[in-house]
Amino acid sequence: MINQQLYDTIFKRKSVRKYDMNPLSETILNEVKAFANSALPLVPELKYTYTYLSAGDIKNLLPIKAPHYLCLYSETKDHYLMNAGYLLQQIDLFLSERGLGSCWLGMAKPNKQVVAQQDGLEFVIMLAFGMPAEPVHRTSVGEFKRKPVEAITRMGGEVPELLEAVRLAPSASNSQPWIVGGTPSAITVSREKLNLIRGALYNKMNQIDIGIALLHLELAIRRQGGQPVYDFAAADGTTGGEFMAKVEVKPIDE
Ligand SMILES: Cc1cc2nc3c(=O)[nH]c(=O)nc-3n(C[C@H](O)[C@H](O)[C@H](O)COP(=O)(O)O)c2cc1C
């Protein structure tokens, strides 16, 4: 699937929480697996793998029952949480574009015996997916419950398409922790600083959220004929919040 289709899906996707419990056909499941295997990581040197589970294989405190769950296992080195968000958001958009439902699940875990099979790599997060039993798309951007663009940036009207793609990204508990700053050619993405209590709950999820936002930002940059160059070390305090990534926007052929 090309970037344009994933980009277009940003503006209509939504979390699907009701599923037809019949398993997807082998053909469709293989299509999903092939796409997942082709998804590109944000941090290429990190090792990761996927497993595919069904409802009996997972523990979920919230009652979201789906016929399939895609679980990401990863090395837990620097930036692995952002990498997880970036990878699985490609799959979330693909599923939505394909007319399938999906929902990020931060509260669910694979059962113990399933976890043990992925030695060396730690379970990070999963996506529920399957045939939706509710509408799979929003019909207008107005249906997204999101902060206004002014609340996530001080860049003003300089890069409206890029900011809109970030603004509409999904996040754990819809917390939308991203703050976008810098300049149109050197964008910085930070996350809101958390107090002690929220930090305990959301420290990991927030970093996954930023990876999701970076993927949306990248799709918008590519749509405009650019490509991103990421720098996770170049701390920049101008946006407030905690620095997560600098995204230099380069012409595609550089
Ligand atoms: C990292 C992450 C974890 C999430 N965990 C859950 C979850 O455990 N249960 C759930 O129902 N939704 C979960 N969600 C979905 C969010 O609640 C949802 O994306 C957000 O409210 C925005 O709604 P939308 O996806 O329909 O646009 C999660 C989303 C993200 C990004």
From TrEMBL:
A Pfam family matched in the record: TM1586_NiRdase
The keyword Metal-binding is assigned to this record: no
The Putative nitroreductase TM1586 domain, residue ranges: 6-220
Keyword Flavoprotein among record annotations: yes
Domain of life: Bacteria
A single MF term (Gene Ontology): oxidoreductase activity
Protein name: Putative TM nitroreductase
